[in-house]
Amino acid sequence: MNEIIKQTLLDLKDRQARGEHMKCPRCGRDAMNTNVHRNALSRYADVHVCDECGVAEAMLAIMQNPLPLTRWSCFRDERPRFDFEALPGAIARDQLRKDQIPYLIRLFERWNAEPEPRDAQKTEAPLPPSGLPQSLR
User: Fold this and answer.
1) What is the DSSP letter of 51?
2) What is the pLDDT of residues 66-81, one digit of tens each?
3) What is the pTM of this model?
4) Distance CA 48, CA 65 (A)
């Protein structure tokens, strides 16, 4: 589990403990009970999810096929969608500043936090100055 996922889960747990009303972190629907302890506790993360997601997690656990955390609604970056052609220029610019730029920053931060692929760390060994030895030609 990478640092972004850990931080997001800790933030969700803290917000739920304070009693903040929010959408279900797993499915994204507004189906959470206002009393957080009346919701289902996730089997895979220390946060509460809606009752339907709790049942779905139980069924997937029986089949040993859990939904990966990266597929949860709270970890998917939903791109803000706007019909910029229908908006006047000033409003479109404000929408870009308000929604698109924060989305791009979050996307960059997630990309920057990912470890480099091991293939990128491999480099070819340089040939000796005299070229290949006779035995390898």
Assistant:
1) H
2) 888 888 888 876 555 5
3) 0.55
4) 20
